[in-house]
């Protein structure tokens, strides 16, 4: 049994849809760790030096070229989306998009509308 009272509507919904006892146990334990603040770290240590904030609206001087990395950092984003908020998803994607990064987008199988929208803007 879980070590806390499960009251979150998303957790309750996930529990009702889970097919196995093991899955329900995982959901319960994960929810309780989240509720106790133990699921995610309080802070994340940065191991990469920060030279300055890259901004596409800033005009770079010729001197700035020497600071450009030979091997740019590549980030893999994993997005789990559901519902009908395709405009919000498009705005967020526009904010994080860079040609060197990777994107894995999982659309909940019950979100047919959003799946069609994601396919449409992913093809652009």
TrEMBL record:
Q: Where in this chain does the entry annotate a coiled-coil region?
A: none
User: Membrane topology for this entry?
Assistant: Single-pass type II membrane protein
Transmembrane regions listed in the UniProt entry? none
Keyword list (alphabetical) reads: Disulfide bond, Glycoprotein, Glycosyltransferase, Golgi apparatus, Membrane, Metal-binding, Transferase
Query: What are the recorded Gene Ontology BP terms?
Result: chondroitin sulfate proteoglycan biosynthetic process; heparan sulfate proteoglycan biosynthetic process
The molecular function terms of the Gene Ontology recorded here are:
metal ion binding; protein xylosyltransferase activity
UniProt cross-references to InterPro entries, sorted A to Z: Glyco_trans_14, XYLT
UniProt-annotated location(s): Golgi apparatus membrane
EC number, UniProt record: 2.4.2.26
What is one cellular component GO term in this UniProt entry?
A: Golgi membrane
Identify the enzyme class. Answer: transferase
In its keyword annotation, does this UniProt entry include rRNA processing? no
Signal peptide limits: none
Please give the pathway this protein is involved in.
Glycan metabolism; chondroitin sulfate biosynthesis; Glycan metabolism; heparan sulfate biosynthesis
Chemical reaction(s) catalysed: UDP-alpha-D-xylose + L-seryl-[protein] = 3-O-(beta-D-xylosyl)-L-seryl-[protein] + UDP + H(+)
User: What family is this protein classified in?
Assistant: Belongs to the glycosyltransferase 14 family. XylT subfamily.
* Designated name of the protein: protein xylosyltransferase
UniProt source species: Mustela putorius furo (European domestic ferret)
